[in-house]
């Protein structure tokens, strides 16, 4: 919802919130706000796309974070096994 517009960003955000929450038709809300109904419809669609993209990115980030945490746990386990093996072989070589 950015770009050059004669309407401030805050007004557009508030208008989108009002359009989503109103029980009145979008055209009526637009008339009450003094904007073209197609302009308001464009703002709502842009907000929907932005929220969908943010949600999809968040889901992907969460999946990646889980996968990375799992990999860290595996690597820590491998490191512990190798540390124990090195200590064992060092002790065997010292005999």
From TrEMBL:
<dbReference type="InterPro" id="IPR009057">
    <property type="entry name" value="Homeodomain-like_sf"/>
</dbReference>
<dbReference type="InterPro" id="IPR051839">
    <property type="entry name" value="RD_transcriptional_regulator"/>
</dbReference>
<dbReference type="InterPro" id="IPR002514">
    <property type="entry name" value="Transposase_8"/>
</dbReference>
<protein>
    <submittedName>
        <fullName>Transposase</fullName>
    </submittedName>
</protein>
<keyword id="KW-0175">Coiled coil</keyword>
<dbReference type="Pfam" id="PF01527">
    <property type="entry name" value="HTH_Tnp_1"/>
</dbReference>
<feature type="coiled-coil region">
    <location>
        <begin position="58"/>
        <end position="92"/>
    </location>
</feature>
